[in-house]
Each structure stands twice: as structure tokens, then as C-alpha cells.
Amino acid sequence: MTDLKPLLKLLNISFNDEKLLNQALVHRSSLNEYKNPYSISNERLEFLGDAVLELWTSQTLYKKFPDFNEGQMTNLRSLIVRTQNLASIALDLKIGDYIYLSKGEETHGGRLNISILADTLEAIIGAIYLDGGQNAVDTFLSQILHKSIDELSNKNQYKDPKSIFQELSQSKQGITPNYQIIEQTGPDHDKKFTSGAYIGDKLIAKGEGNSKQKAEEQAAINATESLKNLL
After folding, report:
1. What does the pLDDT look like over 162-176, one tens digit per residue?
2. Which of 87, 151, 167, 203 is the most buried (most CB within 10 A)?
3. Is position 122 annotated as part of the catalytic site?
């Protein structure tokens, strides 16, 4: 098994049951290659961690910004928990170095894949919650997210990528954009979606993700950049 002491130091946390942290690092691709006690991937922990993260972020923003309305808090929360932000944090914590990946996934850049990094961070959050409860999660998330919350709130831009693209499209083209799933691949338990961001019938950009929401979000980010370059 991988020595996780360096990772624990980077995370600045301790585990009562270190097996939970190991489980959080098991990417589905590794299941047929690693002879370890973990016969399932980290997806269940990711599911739990996603819910824990959203609740913690909602409570934190509610308390920290008493003057924000529902829309402002919703959009700021979307920016904080979006894939790109979580992946950036995971990179800073060097989580990618410790993920159990198949050789093929690793060869194709899996340790730097933003979706894998973000999903693994969510799985670690789920593991921390199971191991140490709400107090442990509060401490950990306060450590890793306070910078993002301060920076994003100070930008006075409390909008998610789709809202940003919509405003740009409406102001420059007078049209509300729409999204269509262009392609979906993989088995039901490991779907990959490709979404197109359209203005009218014109495809502006594509985005990929392991859910329709993430694919649309990435398409909106790419479309915003494309539209800015065209104008």
C-alpha cells in the first residue's frame, strides 16, 4: 500500500481509520490492476463528499455574507464547488500523486485530469466526514476553501459559468444560449458526456464531463472564451 503520511501532512489532518483515506483514492480504472483490499472505487465516497461539501459551503456563505440574497449565494457557491476550483485545490495538495490509477489512465494524464482530481477531493471529504464527523470536515474545509471564498467574493462576480456566458450572449447577440448533449460514451456507471453550447443554431464550443451538468459548465467556459475572442 502507498505510504500516505506525506499526503496526510499536506492535508493537515489525521485519520482514525486510514483505510477510509485509501478507499477515497481508488479510481475505478485501477480496480482490475491493483491487488488490494479495495474491490470498489471511490464513487460512493465521492457521492457523500459532494453532499457534505455543498451543505458546508451553503452554511458558510449564509453566515459569512448576511447581506447576500439567494441568487448571490447560489452563484458564489457554484463557483466555489465547481470542478475547476476543486481540481486546483487538489493540485495544490498534490492529491494526484496518490490516486490509484490504471496504467492506461496514468499514461493519458489521469493524475492531472481535472475531473478525476475534483472527484477524488470530494471522495476525501466524504472519508473525513465518516472518520471524524462534522467537526473534522469543518476544520478541513475551512483550511482548503477560505482562500477561494475570499477571492471569489471579492471579485464581485457571483455567477456560475453558464450565467456568465448567458449574459455575454444576450448583451452581444441578443440571444439566450442553449445546450445540447452531443455525445455520451461509456457504461452507465462511468458515463462521459459531451455538451455543445449554442447561440441559436450555431455551435460556439463543446465541453466534456462525467455528468451533463459538468459537461454544460465546461462548454459554457469554453464558449465564453470563444465568444470574447470573436467580438
Report:
1. 888 888 888 878 889
2. 87
3. yes
